[in-house]
Each structure stands twice: as structure tokens, then as C-alpha cells.
């Protein structure tokens, strides 16, 4: 790459509306510019877009720490907008007790208890949507499927009351914006943060939570002494922070993949067990969580560049998931590839603790749709919902062609 080209990519704002709405061209230039690039729009900021280097940094928690925040803001210099997450924004050893508590609560064994119910809810949800529709239903798949299904099953599983759940998506939207720079997206959310955050924080109290959900299990861990009673509400807050918007846009991704790859949908209908690999490949392909930052704990040499201690490094998860140095034909959604090793759920000790929950939601919804919908057709091009962290859809107008009609 020429010096001019390198200077040009380094000067791009990765959080501009242009890049957020269509990130792949910028990410390709970023990868070509080197293993690490100083992003000159912001002070002390570096970016990593290649799979090998981003992966290596994500597993190197000793040198690329999270406790100074995983957004642009450095908690060692600036006060965070909310008390830091005990999981996401913590390093070992503090990180480890909350993680050890949460992992089995959201693990495959515990989820077996929810599997039948979530499949039944998905069937009922899709049946209700399709009822009386005739042979073809035209629908916006974002509110009708990608948002409605997780908003039905996940808050119930956490054990929060029905009342007020409309705060969950705007809270998550602001939280994911707030990892980025203080741009217009953050300013637009700011006037309403206090009411959303106030409601979310109130749902983390023991008295508010049902006695059989993920929330109660976190409080029970505090009673056993595995975490403190002061930590319990913040661990519940992590579920309500990380568990809603992420799955909405993960489901949005796999629905987009199925609408644009009718052959893949035919195969999934014939064998709904393919919904697991379809979801995983959609997470790689779309990378709903595009970026997270780390902070250099010491001076770190990467290639010819030294990232100085205290600098922020932006990990481009979506870019790593599209790196042709690692993936064949990375921009293609391909049901036949092995997407494992993608960094869409992160990598290393912070790798998504809720990934089994997300996969179960996707499997339940896709299986219900596969039994009832012969073809998913794009009715109009989707529109993007811009967010500093999430690659998200606002709308996805689709036509669902009913099976057997
Ligand atoms: C948390 C948290 C919040 C947002 C995202 C996330 C993707 C975690 O509060 O722990 O992980």
C-alpha cells in the first residue's frame, strides 16, 4: 500500500455514518494497511482489522486489558457513564468470580430446561403471525420476528416483570453507542439514558426478579458466597445489557441470509438441524457486534508499530470475520463452510457468555419458521439502524410464502 493510501485509511472515522452503514470497503483498506494502524481521527487510537492479529490480541488479556473500558473512553482518565460491568469491563482476577457464576447459569446444561418451552413459544409466535394471512404474508421481519421473539423469551428467562420491557432495546442501543466516540448517535440517546438506565437497574433487585430465572440464580450464587451481594445486581445488569439487542440483530442477520440465499433455506427446511450452522455463519457474515476496544497495558510491538502503554486499540471483529487471509470468499454467506473460530462472539476469556442462549433462540425461531414457511423473499431492501458498535437493521421487509399453500 502506498503512503498516500495508508494516510487516507488512517484518517477515516470508523464511526462516521458512511462507514457504519457500509463497513466492508473501509475494513478491507484497513486490513491492507497493516496489522495495526494508528487511527488519526482520535487521540492515542490504533485499530486492528486482520483476523490473525485481532485474534492474538483478544486472547492476550495481560497486554490488551478491558478494565480501562472496552469503548473509546479510557476509564483511567475519564469517569465511565455507568458503573463498569463486572464482566465486560474487568480483567482477571476480578473478572473471574462473576464469569464463573454466570457461565453455568447460561450454559448448555441449564438451557436444556428452556428448550422445549422456547420451541413452543416460537411455534406459537410464528403461527399467530401467519394466522389468516393467506398464501403470502408481507411483513417487516425486524419488529415481527427478530425483535418480538427474543423480547418474549429472554426477559422471561431472566425473570423480570412484563411492565417496562420497552426500555430494554433503547437502553442497549445507547449502551452500544456509548462504546464509540461522543458523536451524534450518543447525543441523540443522551436525553433518555437516565429513564432507561433507572428502569434497567431497578430490575436487578432480588425482590423484583422471579424466583426461578437467571436473575434468581445469580442472587443464589451470592448467597453461596461465590460473588458478593453487592455484585449480584451488576451481574444481572449484564444480562439485560448484552442479551437483547445482540440477539435481535443476530436473528436479523440470519433472516437476511435466508431471504437472500433461497437454496440455503431449502436445505434448512429439509434438515432444521442446519439452523445452528446457519446462525453461526450469519454471525460471522454480518457480525452484529462489529467492534470492541482494548487498552495497551504496556508498550506492545506489532509489526513495525509500537502501540504505547495506555493507548486504545480498536478490535474490528467484523473485519477479522471478513479477512481473506483467513477465510475463503469471506463476503459470501456459505452454509458449507465451517464458521467456527469466527470472532463475532469475541475470543478468549471474555468470549460471549450468552452465546448458547443466542443459539437456542435462533434454533427455536428458525425451526418454527422452517416448518411453516416455504420461501422467504426480500420484499424491499433492508434499511440500517446506525449504531457505534452494532451492525443493525432498522427494517427488513420480507414476503413469507406459506408452506403447503
Ligand atoms: C455488560 C455488557 C454490556 C454490553 C455488551 C456486553 C457484548 C456486556 O454489561 O456486561 O457484551
From TrEMBL:
Q: Which SUPFAM superfamilies match?
A: Cytochrome P450
Report keywords, A-Z. Answer: Heme, Iron, Metal-binding, Monooxygenase, Oxidoreductase
InterPro entries in the record: Cyt_P450, Cyt_P450_B, Cyt_P450_CS, Cyt_P450_sf
Family annotation (Gene3D superfamilies): Cytochrome P450 (1.10.630.10)
The record ties this protein, via CDD domains, to:
CYP199A2-like
PROSITE patterns cross-referenced by the UniProt entry? CYTOCHROME_P450 (PS00086)
Source superkingdom: Bacteria
Q: Name one Pfam family in it.
A: p450
**Family label:** Belongs to the cytochrome P450 family.
Which PANTHER family does the record associate with it?
Answer: CYTOCHROME P450 YJIB-RELATED, P450, PUTATIVE (EUROFUNG)-RELATED
What protein name is recorded for this chain? Cytochrome P450
Amino acid at each position: 500500500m502506498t503512503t498516500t493510501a495508508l494516510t487516507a485509511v488512517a484518517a477515516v472515522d470508523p464511526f462516521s455514518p458512511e462507514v457504519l452503514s457500509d463497513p466492508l470497503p473501509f475494513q478491507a483498506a484497513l486490513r491492507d494497511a497493516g496489522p495495526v494502524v494508528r487511527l488519526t481521527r482520535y487521540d492515542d487510537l490504533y485499530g486492528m482489522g486482520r483476523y490473525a492479529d485481532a485474534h492474538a490480541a483478544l486472547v492476550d488479556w495481560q497486554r490488551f486489558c478491558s478494565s480501562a473500558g472496552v469503548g473509546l473512553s479510557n476509564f483511567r482518565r475519564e469517569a465511565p457513564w455507568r458503573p463498569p460491568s463486572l464482566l465486560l469491563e474487568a480483567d482477571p482476577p476480578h473478572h473471574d468470580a462473576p464469569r464463573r457464576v454466570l457461565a453455568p447459569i447460561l450454559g448448555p446444561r441449564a438451557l436444556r430446561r428452556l428448550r422445549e418451552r422456547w420451541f413452543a413459544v416460537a411455534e406459537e409466535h410464528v403461527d399467530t403471525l401467519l394466522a389468516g394471512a393467506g398464501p403470502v404474508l408481507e411483513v417487516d421481519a425486524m419488529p415481527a420476528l427478530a425483535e418480538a421473539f427474543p423480547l418474549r423469551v429472554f426477559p422471561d428467562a431472566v425473570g423480570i416483570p412484563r411492565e417496562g420491557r420497552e426500555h430494554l432495546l433503547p437502553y442497549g442501543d445507547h449502551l452500544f453507542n456509548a462504546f464509540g466516540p461522543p458523536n451524534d448517535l450518543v447525543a441523540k440517546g443522551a436525553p433518555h439514558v437516565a429513564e432507561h438506565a433507572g428502569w434497567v437497574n431497578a430490575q436487578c433487585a432480588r425482590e423484583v426478579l422471579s424466583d426461578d430465572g437467571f436473575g434468581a440464580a445469580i442472587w443464589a450464587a451470592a448467597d453461596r458466597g461465590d460473588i458478593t451481594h453487592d455484585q449480584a445486581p451488576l451481574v444481572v445488569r449484564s444480562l439485560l445489557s448484552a442479551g437483547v439487542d445482540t440477539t435481535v440483530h443476530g436473528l436479523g442477520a440470519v433472516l437476511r441470509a435466508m431471504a437472500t440465499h433461497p437454496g440455503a433455506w431449502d436445505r434448512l427446511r429439509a434438515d432444521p438441524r442446519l439452523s445452528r450452522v446457519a446462525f453461526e455463519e450469519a454471525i460471522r457474515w454480518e457480525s452484529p457486534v462489529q467492534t470492541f476496544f482494548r487498552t495497551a497495558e504496556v508498550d506492545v510491538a506489532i509489526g513495525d508499530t509500537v502501540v504505547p502503554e495506555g493507548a486504545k486499540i480498536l478490535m474490528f471483529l467484523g473485519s477479522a470475520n471478513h479477512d481473506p487471509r483467513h477465510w475463503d470468499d469471506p463476503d459470501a454467506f456459505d452454509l458449507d463452510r465451517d464458521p467456527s473460530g469466527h470472532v463475532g462472539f469475541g475470543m478468549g476469556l471474555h468470549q460471549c457468555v450468552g452465546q448458547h442462549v443466542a443459539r437456542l433462540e435462533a434454533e427455536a425461531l428458525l425451526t418454527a419458521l422452517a416448518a411453516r414457511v416455504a420461501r422467504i423473499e426480500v420484499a424491499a431492501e433492508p434499511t440500517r439502524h446506525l449504531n457505534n458498535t452494532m451492525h443493525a437493521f432498522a427494517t427488513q421487509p420480507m414476503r413469507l410464502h406459506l408452506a403447503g399453500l
